[in-house]
Design goal:
This protein is of the alpha/beta class. It is built from 15 helices and eight strands. Bound molecules: adenosine-5'-diphosphate and magnesium ion (MG). Adenosine-5'-diphosphate (ADP) binds next to helix 1, strand 7 and helix 13.
C-alpha cells in the first residue's frame, strides 16, 4: 500500500537546533521502512547537514550540492543506498540555497522533484531558524511536523516557527492583495495601537464585504495541518508541553495542531549517535524505539485518511472579535507551565 499522493512529502522542522529533528526523522524513517514503506530521507538542513553521520555514512558519494550545481540531471541520481533496507538517503550540502537566494518558483521546482521521488514517503529534515528557505520547504509539504522539547526556549522557538510559517503562507497566498500584506506586515511590527495581534484579529480587519477573500483565508487556515512531536520526554509532565503550543496556536494563530506522539529521553539514542549506528536499528526494545514505532503507525494512518473536506457554509463566517494581545502569550505560557 502506498501513501496517499497528497501526503507523501513530510517536513520536520521546529525552529530550534538540537531538539532532535534529525534523530526523529531518521528513527521515524527506519520504523516506516520496517512497516514496509519505501522511504527517502532528505537532509534539507543546508549548512548543518548531519543526517548522513547519524545514518553511519562517513563520506557521502553524492549530496544535494551535486544537484544544485547541476553536476547531475535529476534528484534521483543523488539518492544513496543505506544499510537499512527500504531507506534511501539524499545527503545535505552547504547553504547553497541561502547563497543562491532562489526564487519561490525555483524552490517549488525542487520540491516538486522531491515529491515525485520513487518512494511511498519522503521525509525532509529541516534546519533550525525561520529563513524563507526553511519556511517554504515546510509550507510546501502536505505533512508538517514540528519537533519540540518541554524547555521554555524550545516552546518559544516552536511557537515562533509555526507563526512565521503561517504568516509566510498567508503572504504567499495573498501576494497580490495589498490590504492583507499590509496587515500581515503590521502584525509583525512592534506592539502599536490598532495592530492585529492574532490571526482572528486579522480576520476581523478583513471581514468587510469580500466573502471570497474571507473564504480563501479560512481555507488556508483549515489546510494548514500540523503535527507536534515532544522529544526528550522524561516525565508525564514533559509530554504536556504540546498543550502549551496547542493553546497559543489556537489563541493567536487560529490553528489546531495535533500531537503525533512523543519520544522518550533514552540513553540508547545517545549511544547510537556516538557509534554512528542508525537508531533504532537493532534497538527495537528500547523506550525511544517503541515511541518511534507508535508514531510511524500513527503517520501511516494519517496518510491513508481521506483529505479534509471542503469548508461548509457555516465555517466561512467570520468569528467574533476577541481581545487578543501578543503580550498575553508569555503570561499564558507561564500559567500553563505552572499548571502541568
Ligand atoms: N530522545 C532522545 N534521547 C536521548 N538523546 C537524544 C534524544 N533526542 C535527541 N538526542 C540527542 O540530541 C542530539 C541532537 O539531536 P539532533 O537530532 O541532531 O537535533 P536537531 O536535528 O534538532 O539539531 C543528538 O545527537 C542526541 O545525542
Ligand atoms: Mg538536525
Amino acid at each position: 500500500m502506498s501513501a496517499q499522493p497528497g501526503k507523501k512529502l513530510w517536513s520536520i522542522g521546529g525552529g530550534k537546533g538540537g531538539v532532535g529533528k534529525s534523530v526523529f526523522t531518521l528513527g521515524l524513517g527506519i520504523c516506516l521502512a520496517h512497516l514496509d514503506k519505501k522511504v527517502i530521507l532528505v537532509d534539507a538542513d543546508l549548512g548543518g547537514a548531519n543526517l548522513h553521520t547519524l545514518m553511519g555514512v562517513r563520506y557521502p558519494p553524492f549530496t544535494l550540492e551535486d544537484f544544485f550545481l547541476k553536476r547531475v540531471n535529476s534528484l534521483e541520481e543523488v539518492i544513496i543506498d543505506t544499510d537499512v533496507e527500504g531507506i534511501g538517503l539524499i545527503c545535505g550540502a552547504d547553504d547553497i540555497l541561502g547563497a543562491a537566494n532562489p526564487t519561490y518558483a525555483q524552490k517549488v521546482r525542487i520540491l516538486t522533484q522531491l515529491e515525485n521521488l520513487p518512494a511511498d514517503l519522503v521525509l525532509l529534515d529541516l534546519g533550525a531558524g525561520t529563513s524563507y528557505n526553511v519556511l517554504d520547504f515546510f509550507n510546501y509539504s502536505p505533512g508538517r511536523i514540528c519537533v519540540l522539547t518541554s524547555h521554555p526556549t524550545s516552546l518559544q522557538n516552536a511557537y515562533g516557527f509555526i507563526k512565521s510559517a503561517l504568516y509566510r503562507q498567508i503572504s504567499r497566498e495573498f501576494s497580490r492583495d495589498h490590504e492583507v500584506l499590509r496587515l500581515v506586515l503590521k502584525s509583525e511590527d512592534q506592539p502599536t495601537d490598532g495592530k492585529p495581534d492574532s490571526v482572528e484579529d486579522l480576520l476581523f480587519h478583513l471581514q468587510g464585504g469580500d466573502v471570497d477573500r474571507l473564504t480563501r483565508f479560512l481555507k488556508l487556515l483549515k489546510s494548514f495541518e500540523l503535527y507536534l512531536v515532544v522529544n526528550e520526554v522524561k516525565t508525564d509532565r514533559d509530554i504536556q508541553a504540546w498543550k502549551i503550543i496547542e493553546k497559543v496556536c489556537a489563541s493567536f494563530l487560529s490553528l489546531e495542531p495535533k500531537l503525533l506522539g512523543y519520544l522518550s529521553h533514552d540513553p540508547a539514542v545517545d549511544k547510537a549517535v556516538n557509534q554512528m549506528v542508525p537508531f533504532p536499528l537493532n534497538q527495537e526494545k528500547s523506550p525511544a524505539a517503541q515511541d518511534l514505532y507508535k508514531m510511524a503507525q500513527a503517520l501511516v494512518e494519517i496518510c491513508t485518511q481521506e483529505p479534509p473536506h471542503l469548508l461548509s457554509k457555516a465555517e466561512t463566517s467570520c468569528p467574533e472579535r476577541t481581545d487578543g494581545s501578543w503580550s498575553r502569550l508569555w503570561s499564558m505560557v507561564q500559567r500553563e507551565m505552572k499548571s502541568i
